Please model this.
Amino acid sequence: MASTSSSMVGSGSPVLKWVLRLAVVGYLFFLVGWPSALIVRRTFEGGTQAFSDALHDPDVTHALQLSVTVALVAVVINLLFGVGMSLLLVRYEFPGKRALSALIDLPLAVSPIVVGLALVLVYNPRYGWFGEGLDAHGIQIIFAKPGMIMATTFVALPLVIREVVPVLEDMGDDQEQAANSLGANGWQTFWRVTLPGIKWAVVYGVVLSLARSLGEFGAVKVVAGNVSGETTTAPVLVQQKYQNFEQQTAYAVSFMLVAAAVVCLIVVALLRPSEHSQSRRLAKNDAAAKEIP
Amino acid sequence: MSIDVSGVTKKFGDFVALDDVTVSLPTGQLTALLGPSGGGKSTLLRIIAGLDSADTGSVTIEGREATNLPARKRNVGFVFQHYAVFKHMSVAKNVAFGLEIRKRPRKEIDKRVAELLELVHLSQFRDRMPSQLSGGQRQRMALARALAVEPTVLLLDEPFGALDAKVRKELRDWLRRLHDEVHTTTIFVTHDQEEALEVADEIVVINDGRVEQIGAPDTLYDAPANDFVMRFLGETTDLGDRTVRPHDIDVSLSPGDLGAVSGTVTRILRVGFEVRVNVLTDGGQEVLVTMTKTLARSLGIEEGAKVWLTAAKGATTVPVMPASVAV
Model:
């Protein structure tokens, strides 16, 4: 019955449709679903005891705390700079704008390990460009939190910008000009008109950045070194524990990371259908209203 | 006291949008900036509003030097073609925006917003979001928003351009009545000559970045400064070496006047009450004549008939410019 109704709605043959569905579901199952499910299964294989034991391991709590701290700081930085850069890219004309726009995508293209190495080259205390000077003033970047925050920020840099830029472009500067002519200064215009207009894009970008930052491994591992567990984040800890044959702990931390990511994605999914489709519907209404009085 | 624009030039790259424009717009009147698209009229309006800046020249608003004043300090109300409503604010919030920025007391704001919504007939929509309004309603809301700050001058950039013909006509009448009530100096940009002739006290015709003519609608219509103005203000046709309006041509079936141009009727088209007659003169010129159906019948003209054309007595004519471009 379902196939008759869908064949009436769809254009292809019902057989092809089911084959395609099967292919997609199978693909996702073997690539994503099954492996993730195994993590959950392994975590709770011996009941919840092993999981709660792992969570009481001081290494684990420290790593999780460190991951959350680093991720939050990186997200705040990316939020401020992301919104600022988006405004710069969309609202202002300046030489080198296209180069800057391309540069922003670099963190997506470059391997995180390379990002970590690059930061080490610049900031390490012995031969880095800035490292020596900063070290002389007692500021340590590499093998410490600042370096880890920088690496994470670098890797998650494009996410807020790539969400906000299209929405800003779509919005146009009409509303901002109107606010201006009504007496609002730049700051008032931003808070009262621009920010409410891009609000959901910003929230979406932040949630994505948070998920990405929590899970960052390569770049952080390179800059963090291994200062007796002090600079071990959750993803790095997973690798260490796994290699040290403490699989149960590795699974537990992995589960925490998966859970955090899933929560982030659920938040996004909840936001997107309601708010995004609504704003899109409004935009459509706008277009229609231009023709229908 | 008025708005004085003097020697304003504005270029966008190689394109000259305004070329040394000097114009004085009188206080308390409804002035139309009329011209074809890309002629520079919107640019002039935006320069008066401070949304664009002139390359050279100066702008004075009611005796106050405004050339280097930012838009927010000029106290002008600006209405955009595509409304530029604040999408995330209710109708009342939109209208209240300028007053809230000016930190007026809550009570005063509420009172003023209620008055304005009354004025634009949107009182029952005060809590709606802009997306729930029609285009005409949105534009009225945008107008109320601009009027809320009691602007020295109200600027409207093709305010009815995005609306359909019927609503456009309604809003046009309504704007005229509103202006008669409020008396704020108002300047609006339009490319619709009918709109300008019907609504404005004064019309400034702008083309190619220059002012072609300034005057009352009747003056422009009866005494156009050149063939561009004449062509832009309505349909025209060339008869001999004069540009004349098609309804100002007398048709006769016999050679009467000395200056009459003879020709043959090539096509007769009836559009409602109007009859449009195409005549090919013996000199090879295509002339369009319009007349009422009644007149056409009483004359008894038909396709292929030989006719003699003269410009009617008292008709407005201007010399045909060589290589002039028809609009």
